[in-house]
Amino acid sequence: MVFKSIASTGLLALSATQFAAGVLADAPTCPKDTPLSCSTSSEQASCCFNTPGGSFLQTQFWDYDPATGPSNSWTIHGLWPDNCDGTYEQFCDSSREYSNITAILKDQGRTELLSFMNKYWKDNSGDDESFWEHEWNKHGTCINTIEPDCYTDYTAQEEVGDYLQKTVDLFKTLDTYKALAAAGITPSTTKTYTLSEIHDALAAIHDDFAPYVACDGDNLNEAWYFYYVRGNLITGEYEPSEKLTQSNCPDSGIKYVPKSNGQESTCPNRR
């Protein structure tokens, strides 16, 4: 698995300018024998151990009506710290809830990140900024290893940029569209697929662990890839893991609807 060694650097999509500026330079580096998240219930929360949210989900959308993002790519939903039993905390720190994500990223010089988000992290109602704010405020504030005290030279909102960058970095390693296409699963108005076929195709890019996939009726529209993390969320090692949620898709007859220009969304409410 190539990804684990790359992800442990926490620098997958950073430009040379950002690296030189010290982005992530003060995020904790943890001992190699740090326990894997969810591996023990006795480990106390620290900047090197994620708890209670020790199962991390890189989540993606296939928005087809109305369509969002490129026609040959899924789009980002978020990065969620779920508890080890499939439950989750939410909106954990009201003092760090923000409504100016674009401004935060510009102030941090993360223009490449912002450009990528504008293309691949899309809201199905057209309000990308509010979507990003929601994901940080609801999920990002619940990650204990990126709290301000975990930084050695903390600057305001540093963890926000780090969280969004990590979400994008993970997304770039999980090309759901390409993985499905490699297995002959392509958007179609006539073809249908089985849940087993979809699971097998996506397990091929996730160390043989099938992600959770969701459907709106019979129509495929979400994928959640599960990980455990050894160490800090930003600098730690990500290990693919078994999904903790079972699909709501039927066993067969699943449609993979091509993206359209429809005006009414048929997708369910977002988490």
Please, could you describe this protein's structure?
The chain is an alpha+beta fold and 271 residues long. It has one domain: Ribonuclease Rh, Chain A. The chain is built from eight helices and five strands, in the order ααββααααααβββ. The chain has helices spanning 3-7, 16-20, 101-107, 111-120, 128-138, 158-172, 176-182, 195-203, and strands spanning 55-61, 75-82, 212-216, 219-230, 237-240. Strands 1, 2, 3, 4 and 5 form a five-stranded antiparallel β-sheet that branches. Strand 3 and strand 4 (219-230) form a beta hairpin. The longest helix has 15 residues, at 158-172. Belongs to the RNase T2 family. InterPro entries: Ribonuclease_T2_eukaryotic, RNase_T2-like, RNase_T2-like_sf, RNase_T2_His_AS_1, RNase_T2_His_AS_2. This is ribonuclease T2.
| Superfamily (CATH H level) name | Ribonuclease T2-like
How much β-strand is present in the residues?
A: 5-15%
Query: Count the helices. How many?
Result: 8
Rg is: 18 Å
Uncertain segments of ≥5 residues (pLDDT<50)? 1-23, 262-269
The largest sheet, given as strand count, sense and whether it forms a barrel, is: 5 strands, antiparallel
Q: Which features characterize this protein?
A:
five-stranded antiparallel beta sheet, 13% strand, 271 residues, alpha+beta, Ribonuclease Rh, Chain A, disordered C terminus
